[in-house]
Every structure is written in structure tokens, then in C-alpha cells.
Amino acid sequence: MNNAQYRWLELFCIFILLPVAGLLMREYLHNWLIPALITLTAVCCFILLTDPHFKRFRITSMGQFSAVRKRIATFFLTGALFSGVLYGILNQENWFSYPLQSPLSWLMLLVLYPLLSVLPQELIFRTYFFHRYKPIIPSKTWRIWLSAGVFSLAHMVYGNWVAIVLSFCGGLLFSYTYAHSRSTIVCVLEHSLWGLWMFTLGLGSYLDSGAI
């Protein structure tokens, strides 16, 4: 097996086989998603940091933030306004239910979600995916779409189509941001904004394993 074949096999096992296995065993993984995510992140980081071709500053620097900051702000403000109004019309009963009913839990989420969920996801699905599979997927456009696709597959574990659709749309945004900023931190910032907004708005029940 040559290097390209090995990487295709690795991609299949990590980003397709694991999510399918997670879906099949979802009832047993309720409290194990975060530990599993952190374990996979550790493996991916080890591979990245031992790769002499990986530029470590991708993880810690803001990269080309200036190239994407206007789009991030515009998309988020527009999307937050639209989704807030739409969800309020469609599901007024759960509109902002989380911060109103569980303010302390919501405040904890503001701190823990970016650290325990967003950062590991961005390291795996953006930093690792874009670097590791560049030799076999040289097209940046294809990597953006594939990263979004496998990101949505990983959310099958929640067992609902809303999580899959939202994560695919979010995956496109975050992948585009990484491709043009080359910064994990910038992706973490954008992902955190959208994720925390979804939880705050009342959509958290579609995206929550209960582990945080």
C-alpha cells in the first residue's frame, strides 16, 4: 500500500467509518462523545506535530484574519438575525429557552463549549483534514466541500436531520474560513459564535449529547 492509498484508507476510517459506528452505537455513547472527541484530537495533533511539513503556527496564529473578518461578521450578524426571527415564529415555546430556564448551565456552556467541543472539532476537521489530505485532494475547493461533508457525517450521532443540515452549512463556512485564513483560532472563533448562538436560541437539543 503506497502513501496515497494509506491516506485514503485513513480518511475513510476516521471520517466515514467512525461516524457510522457512532450512529449505530449512539445509545451507548451519551456520556462518551467528548472523551472520544478529545482522544481523536490528541491522535490527530500527534500526527500533525510530528510531521515536519506541518506549519505549527497554523494552530496558534490569527493567520490571514483580515481576509475573512468582514465575511465572518456579515454572515453571522445576518444569519443570527434571520434565524432568530424564523425560529421565534416557528417555535416560540423554545425561543431562548436555554438561557432563560438554565442560566447557570448556559454560562458554563459559554466557557466549556469552545474549549471542549469547538477547539477539538476544528483541529480535526479543518487543521488536520486540510493538511493531512492535501496530497490526495490538492483542490482547495474539494477539500472545503469534503471537510463540510464529513463534518456533517460526524453529527449523525445526534440522530436527527437538523444536526446534519446545520453542521453541513456550518462546515462550509468554517472550511472556507480555514482555507482563506489558514488559522485554527479564527475557525474556533467563528464556530463558537455560531454554536453558542444555536444553543442560546433554543436549537441546542438537536446538537447536544449532554456531555457538556
Question: Can you tag this structure with a few keywords?
Answer:
about 210 residues, mainly alpha, 9 helices
What series of H and E elements makes up the topology? HHHHHHHHH
β-sheet strand percentage? under 5%
Mean pLDDT: 92
Intertermini distance = 40 Å
Portion in helices: over 70%
Q: How large is the radius of gyration?
A: 17 Å
Number of helices: 9
- What characteristic shape results from the CA principal axes? globular
Quaternary state, please?
A: single chain
Overall structural class, as computed from helix and strand content, comes to mainly alpha
Number of domains: 1
- Beta strand count: 0
Organism: Pseudoalteromonas ruthenica
GO molecular function: endopeptidase activity
Keywords: Membrane, Transmembrane, Transmembrane helix
Pfam family, one: Rce1-like
Describe the structure.
The chain is mostly helical and 212 residues long. The protein has nine helices and no strands. The protein has helices at residues 3-24, 33-49, 57-60, 69-90, 97-101, 103-132, 140-154, 161-181, 184-201. The longest helix is centred in the middle third of the chain and has 30 residues, at 103-132.
